[in-house]
Automatic annotation (TrEMBL):
Pfam families: DHR-2_Lobe_A, DHR-2_Lobe_B, DHR-2_Lobe_C, DOCK-C2
Top-level taxonomic group: Eukaryota
Keyword flag Phosphoprotein: yes
Organism: Strigops habroptila (Kakapo)
GO MF, one example: guanyl-nucleotide exchange factor activity
Name by which UniProt lists this protein: Dedicator of cytokinesis 8
Length: 1524
């Protein structure tokens, strides 16, 4: 059986199915046949009474369908064995399906009856189910039941297939075409009288349409609605108004589309369909003609003239709503709060409105160009009151909307604002108003509506901001939409009017918001968008001065009067102030600067994000100016820079809040962590620190105290970029005049700012890709660890993560609005890490090139500023106050990585400075000169010839002028010597060969200087350079031991010791040692180096002056360390602090002493020695009290409180050092042969760790296999060692104290501090074995005494004394039992109780399976009374030890009973049982006494009775000698 399908437009029947003649093929063919066919057949089914046909037939419908179009189905029977001459096909019947029913496509599932007879005439106009009775009647299969099932699906861009849409389109068609009433719509008849009501209902029901057809016909629906909104029409003699219904329907459709999860949104949360409609589809409705429906025809009549200006209803409502929302519709253009007549012109922009008749680039969306005031205005006359313009109607509907409609309008304000802007632009273009003045383009009523809209939206923003977070996000979106709306209005409307709207927005928002950070943030975002206007500069009248103002708001740059900048010469310092005159003249820029100043002045929570936003807005503006080809000319940039001059004053006022880049000491995280412990709160002491080649936290001149920086590094950097851009492009004559008028305090603030700029824009060098990948991997691992921690916290974090995972990528539109979310921060961090990891070598090279160029450009600008300041100060004769600051900035720049271009100019400036102001520099700026010597000497070791040449010339000139001008060459010699010592001691870039070349060059300068040959200067230079070469040779040896930290510190220690008579140099080397220790994270040793340095300073201060609050000398430091007394040796030397060049460094002062001690206290705190922090501050506090520095006293006491809190909280949880005895044997070690040291290693260092480290290091030095580690601690017989090998013996040692010492060492800290005696134990037997039976086991206790006490300025100290004591087996047993008793006592008395620890100790004491346990010890030594009387006392002591031991065991068992859980009762019973057995077994041995011990004994006079110090055999020998 098979079936065939046709589409017919006729009822005529043909014996063989085919199409009516004249119709083309509309059925899509199969792949093997033609593209279109007239008919198609299904496959044949075999022997099936209920066949299923699975074919899918695709039909191309005609563009115009009628009720006669239908689908015809023909059924055939196919004979498998046809008779001869008979046809294979036998016709069975027909069925059909009309394509249209009630003007609607028939789609869906149908079950059709099949007719067996020939079809009746005109069958297509009826459905098979409802065919009228025929004569003769039609025969049907199964009595007219539905037997043929078919499914029809339509894909059409003509037929909506939605009842609501089809009704709406049909009614709109009735209005637009000539139709006769009544009309039939589906099953409904609509007359002329019901047309209006039905159309309103259809408009209301549009939102009920299905989403898919609504999306397909969205552009038609919106076009029809917008046409209805402005199309005046009369139906049956009555005015029909659909404006409000159409507008509300548009709002509902917009709301539905945004709420649909199936439709995509852009990154701003805007529906993409609506955005595309506005951009590509929307056009103004057709020219309005009044449509009159009367009778059975439609006539086009002339426009009616109603009394209302808008041809609609609801004007009264609009006026009432508007009056409630606005305080006044008629406002002053310069002050919205003053109600005046509308004729009052905007004085601020009065002259903006003319000039330049054609400038087609002034509008983003249309050709909106202004005309002149003198040009005749064709369209200036009022428009006829009957015409309705779309932009006016839309604005009106937005004003009069209420309830949910109004909420939706605000929620999706972007759509209506964009619609309004495009309609305004098309209106201006369509009626050719481009050349008219902007004020006459739009009606006054429309301007009132715009004012109302802005006011209402602003109020809505303020109302949303006081609601929860999600409402705050909505407020931000509305705020952005409003900003873009006013942005576009600047291209279309009178700019004075728009400026008033902006001013009204700012005032209204500030009156309604209480949160300052939120207020500034919203206004900043608003202004940021407005300032991105392409004519931002012209809008702000950047070409104006106080005496000149062009009349055009957007003149071409080429036509601007270049002579206007000449009036800068007459301006005073006020051009750098944010004055009221400036804000009035440069409106948008003034508002932006006002918000920036408010953000920088605010000190509230969450303000940092607002500050970043404000600075970024200004940076973006300057970047756009710099990249704008219209602003490439120098004279234009001068005018632009003049516009931003008030920013300089704002930055200077915010100087205390800037991030201080000078306090950083490294780039890596580890360096930053270690440096942070050193550099806090020590600015006074380390000002211009000579030990660091880079600036080490130099204090700012004009800021006496900088507690914290509120701005982040990135924000500060961006702000400084803005400052340098202005200084570079501003008129230099104006800058010089401004500097000349500034007081010295303001000039010092500028120098402080330049100082920070130098450190901020330091060139960091090219980063290797391997390092980037490592950092990225580390950051990724950190993020992963935090994520895992969050997952383990509970359901809340997991739920939050799952919700984030389900958010589609396309809907993630709140990234910029949710920066404060924890997970977004981590997400951003991860993404940045991946981006850094993906950077190619070319990208890294490009970044390095940009960074280098930026550093050079920034430093050259800074150098120009300094030269301006020098010239101004020289002219004003105030150089004494400024030259020090200038020199400080120059020295700081030399300490940073710089390009050769900058260094050439910088050294030239330095030489000029020395030549002009040498007297002042050498007399007043001693510390700065010391820094200068070090920086220049550092560049003398540069590998670049030109840099080395410049540095040599500068250094020679410095020496020459110091000799000739002040005869103070001794100080410079000392400073150079100290600088060289510091340079070779710690600088990684130091090159010995290049430095020696530079020294020879300087010597050549001295020999060839004809003017100085008659003086002793050349000889002194030669002596100085010889001394420098000698120091260079001595200290360069340290480079050989860079990989051996202990040997390196020993060498530095010896060098420092050699400078005992040169306190300045010794201080420098102590500080070098401190820095080396800090890099190794040996914070305690670094602190001790600084304590020694402070003691050295205290010795010389006590020689200079006698102050009661100062320490007498190093004696006052004994409580910190007993080793510090070695610094008192300098007081016996012949050197005097009064001698020229001696103790002239900055540290030899009270502030220097305080700085060193504060630095040491920070390091002690980092190292966990909180008790020592207290001792350090005991010396500092009297000095601060004498200076009445209460601010620092507050900080000091807060640090003391923190230290004491740490002692209380951490207690014995702190981990101090681990100590090892290390002996070196073998000729390969040289001076170390047969030397023994005690090494201090980090806490919890195991013996294999230090063994592996030392064996690996010396194995690299002496060769593989040449180093052997001795495993035991027995004495080493050197005769048995291989002379070709190096041997290392490593033994774990513990601090050792006599009993009298233990009375003073109570706390855990005291038992780990000030240690100089250590002990280790070696077990042995008489036959040479290390271990044996209890009765054979001896023990050797070895006590080592070190040269200095730990902690010291080194991590290893020589052993100077060794004592050995041998314990007999019974003494060993006594010692072991005492230890077990102490462990039991500690476990029993522990608070809070630890059941596991107690049970573990108990099990080892009373357990039945303990080998060589207490019972076995008792059986070996207490079973019988010893025959040797010498052992009586040992026997009795052991008996008493067991007596105390069994008592402690009983207490522990009772304590455990109270701690066990119910499931441990059997375990407790077992413990008690074992305890009872042990007690019974020990009872006879414990109760047995030796009678001889209770006889009178000979009293022995001994200084020590501890068996640890005197063996019992020595005691017995004494008693036997007395008896003889």
């Amino acid at each position: 059986m098979t079936s065939g399908t046709e589409i017919r437009a006729s009822a005529q029947y043909f014996p063989k199915p085919r199409f009516f003649q004249g119709w083309s093929c509309v059925i899509f063919g199969k792949s093997s046949g033609p593209e279109f066919v007239q008919e198609t057949y299904t496959a044949i089914t075999y022997h099936n009474k209920s066949p299923d046909f699975y074919e899918e037939v695709k039909i191309k419908l005609p563009a115009k369908l009628t009720e006669k179009h239908h689908l015809l189905f023909t059924f055939y029977h196919i004979s498998c064995q046809p008779k001869q001459g008979a046809s294979v096909e036998t016709l069975l019947g027909y069925s059909w399906l009309p394509v249209l029913l009630n003007d609607r496509l028939q789609t869906g599932h149908y079950c059709l009856p099949v007719a067996l007879d020939k079809l009746p005439f005109h069958y297509s106009i009826h459905s098979p189910e409802k065919v009228p009775s025929q004569t003769p009647p039609i025969k049907w299969v199964e009595g007219h039941k539905g037997v043929f099932s078919v499914a029809v699906q339509a894909v059409s861009s003509v037929h909506a297939q939605d009842n609501h849409l089809e009704k709406f389109f049909t009614l709109c068609h009735c209005l637009e075409s000539q139709v006769s009433f009544p009309i039939r719509l589906m099953d409904q008849k609509i007359t002329e009288t019901t047309l209006e009501q039905e159309l309103k209902l259809s408009i209301i029901c549009l939102n009920s349409s299905r989403l898919e057809p609504l999306v397909l016909f969205l552009h038609l629906v919106l076009d029809k609605l917008f046409q209805l909104a402005v199309q005046p029409m009369v139906i049956a003699g009555q005015t029909a108004n659909f404006s409000q219904f159409a507008f509300e329907s548009v709002v509902a459709i917009v709301n539905s589309l945004h709420n649909s999860k199936d439709l995509s949104k852009d990154q701003h949360g805007r529906n993409c369909l609506l955005a595309s409609y506005i951009y590509y589809v929307f056009r103004l409705p057709d020219p309005q003609k009044e449509v009159v429906k009367s009778g059975n025809q439609t006539e086009l009549l002339r426009p009616r003239l109603p009394t209302s200006r808008y041809y609609t209803f609801g004007r009264t409502s609009a006026m009432s709503v508007g009056s409630k929302l606005l305080q006044s519709r008629v406002i002053s253009c310069s002050n919205p709060d003053i109600a005046v007549t509308q004729t009052a012109a905007d004085e601020e922009v009065k002259n903006i409105m003319a000039s330049k008749p054609m400038d087609h680039s002034s509008s983003r969306m249309s050709f909106c160009v202004e005309g002149t005031n003198d040009m005749p205005s064709i369209c200036a006359s009022p428009r006829p009151p009957n015409k309705k313009h779309f932009h006016e109607e839309l604005a009106l509907q937005m004003v009069v909307s209420t309830g949910m409609v109004r909420e939706s309008v605000f929620k999706y304000a972007w759509f209506f604002f964009e619609l309004l802007i495009k309609s305004m632009a098309q209106y201006v273009h369509s009626i050719e108003k481009q050349d008219n003045p902007r004020r006459s383009r739009f009606s006054d009523r429309f301007k009132d509506d715009i004012t109302t809209i802005v006011s209402v939206v602003t109020s809505e923003i303020a109302a949303l901001l006081v609601k929860p977070q999600k409402e705050s996000e909505q407020a931000e979106k509305i705020n952005i939409s409003l900003a873009f709306f006013l942005y576009d209005l600047l291209s279309l409307m009178d700019r004075g009017f728009v400026f008033n709207l902006i001013k009204h927005y700012c005032n209204q928002l500030s009156n309604k918001l209480n949160s300052l950070s939120t207020l500034i943030s919203m206004r900043l975002e608003f202004l940021r968008i407005l300032c991105s206007h392409e004519h931002y500069l012209n809008l702000n009248l950047f070409f104006m001065t106080s005496a000149y103002a062009p009349v055009s708001p957007s003149p071409s740059l080429s036509s601007q009067n270049s002579s206007s900048c000449s009036s800068f010469q007459d301006q005073k310092i006020t051009v750098f102030d944010l004055s009221a005159e400036y804000r009035q003249q440069h409106f948008l820029t003034g508002l932006l600067f006002t918000e920036l100043a408010a953000a920088l002045d605010a000190d509230i929570e969450g303000i940092s994000k607002v500050q970043r936003k404000a600075v970024s807005a200004i940076l973006s503006l300057l970047s756009s100016h710099d990249l704008d080809p219209r602003c490439s000319k120098k004279e234009v940039k001068i005018k632009i820079a003049a516009l931003y001059l008030p920013l300089v004053g704002i930055i200077l006022d915010s100087l205390p809040q800037l991030y201080d880049f000078t306090r950083r000491t490294g780039n890596t995280e580890e360096e930053q962590e270690s440096a942070g412990a050193i550099n806090q709160n020590v600015a006074l002491a380390i000002a211009g620190n000579q030990l660091n080649l880079r600036s080490f936290g130099i204090p700012l001149v004009s800021l006496p105290y900088r507690q914290s920086a509120t701005l982040s590094p990135d924000t500060t950097r961006n702000l400084l970029i803005c400052f340098l851009w202005i200084m570079k492009n501003a008129d230099q004559n104006l800058i010089q005049k401004w500097i000349a008028d500034l007081p010295s305090m303001q000039l010092n603030r500028i120098l402080d700012l330049l100082f920070i700029c130098v450190s901020c824009f330091e060139y960091k060098g090219k980063q290797s890709s391997d390092k980037v990948s490592t950092q990225a991997l580390q950051k990724s691992q950190d993020v992963k660890a935090r994520l895992e921690e969050a997952l383990l916290r509970g359901e809340g974090a997991r739920g939050e993560m799952m919700k984030r995972c389900r958010i589609p990528a396309g809907n993630d539109r709140s990234v910029g609005l949710s920066e404060n979310l924890r997970w977004r921060k981590e997400q951003t961090h991860w993404r940045q890490a991946n981006e850094r990891q993906d950077k190619t070598k070319a990208e890294l090279d490009q970044e390095a090139l940009i960074s280098g160029n930026l550093a050079t450009e920034a430093n050259l600008i800074i150098l120009d500023m300094q030269e301006n300041i020098i010239q101004a100060s020289f002219a004003a004769e105030c150089r004494d106050n400024l030259l020090g600051g200038v020199l400080k900035v120059l020295v700081n720049s030399l300490g940073c990585d710089q390009s050769t271009t900058y260094l050439t100019h910088c050294f030239a400036t330095l030489r000029a400075l020395i030549a002009k102001f040498g007297d002042f520099l050498f007399e007043e700026e001693v510390e700065q000169c010391a820094d200068l010597c070090q920086r220049v000497l550092h560049h003398c070791s540069s590998s670049i010839d030109i840099t080395r040449t410049q540095a040599c010339a500068t250094l020679y000139l410095l020496m020459r002028y110091s000799f000739s001008s002040t005869s103070n060459f001794a100080r410079v010699k000392m400073q150079m010597t100290m600088s060289l010592a510091s340079l070779v001691g710690k600088s990684p870039e130091f090159n010995e060969e290049f430095l020696r070349r530079s020294l020879r060059t300087i010597l050549a300068y001295a020999e060839e200087d004809a003017d100085m040959q008659a003086t002793p200067f050349p000889i002194q230079v030669e002596e100085l350079l010889c001394n420098l070469n000698s120091i260079l040779s001595d200290t360069v040896k340290m480079r050989e031991f860079q990989e051996d930290p202990e040997m390196l510190m020993d060498l530095m220690y010896r060098i420092a010791k050699g400078y005992q008579t040169s306190p300045d140099l010794r201080l420098t080397w102590l500080q070098n040692m401190a820095e080396k220790h800090t890099k190794r994270k040996c914070y305690t040793e670094a602190a001790m180096c600084l304590v020694h340095a402070a003691a050295l300073v205290a010795e010389y201060l006590s020689m200079l002056e006698d102050r009661s609050y100062l320490p007498v000398g190093s004696v006052n430091f004994q409580n910190i360390s007993s080793n510090v007394l070695e610094e008192s040796a300098v007081s016996d030397d012949v050197l005097s602090p009064d001698e020229d060049g001696i103790c002239s460094g900055r540290y030899f002062s009270e502030s220097g002493l305080v700085g060193l001690l504060e630095q040491a206290a920070e390091l002690f705190s980092t190292g966990g020695l909180y008790e020592t922090v207290n001792e350090v501050y005991k010396i500092v506090i009297p000095i601060l009290e004498a200076h009445r520095d209460f601010r620092k006293l507050t900080l000091t006491h807060s640090k003391l409180q923190k230290a004491f809190d740490s002692i209380i909280n951490k207690g014995q949880k702190r981990m101090f050092g681990t100590y090892f005895r290390v002996g070196f044997y073998g000729s390969k070690f040289g001076d170390l042969d047969e030397q023994e040291f005690v090494y201090k290693e980090p806490a919890i260092t195991k013996l294999p760790e230090i063994s592996h480290r030392l064996e690996g290091f010396y194995g690299q030095c002496f060769g593989e296999g040449a180093v052997e580690v001795i495993k035991d601690s027995a004495p080493v017989d050197k005769r048995k060692l291989d002379p070709n090998k190096a041997y290392i013996q490593i033994t774990f040692v513990e601090p050792y104290f006599d009993e009298y010492e233990m009375k003073d060492r109570v706390t855990y800290f005291e038992k780990n501090f000030n240690l100089c005696r250590f002990m280790y134990t070696t077990p042995f037997t008489m036959d040479g074995r290390p271990r044996g039976e209890l009765s054979e086991q001896y023990k050797r206790n070895t006590i080592l005494t070190t040269m200095h006490a730990f902690p010291y300025i080194k991590t290893r100290i020589n052993v100077i004394q060794k004592e050995e004591f041998i314990l007999t087996p019974i003494e060993v047993a006594i010692e072991d039992m005492r230890k077990k008793t102490q462990e039991l006592t500690a476990a029993t008395n522990q608070e809070p109780p630890d059941a596991k620890m107690l049970q573990m100790v108990l099990q080892g004491s009373v357990g039945a399976t303990v080998n060589q346990g207490p019972l076995e010890v008792a059986q070996v030594f207490l079973a019988e009374i010893p025959a040797d009387p010498k052992l009586y006392r040992h026997h009795n002591k052991l008996r008493l030890c067991f007596k105390e031991f069994i008592m402690r065991c009983g207490e522990a068992v009772e304590k455990n009973k109270r701690l066990i859980t119910p499931d441990q009762r059997e375990y407790q019973l077992e413990l008690r049982k074992n305890y009872g057995k042990l007690k019974e077994n020990l009872r006879p041995m414990i109760e047995r006494k030796i009678p001889q011990l209770y006889k009178p004994v000979i009293k022995v006079h001994s200084t020590r009775e501890s068996f640890r110090s005197h063996s019992f055999r020595k005691y017995d020998a004494q008693t036997s000698s007395q008896s003889t």
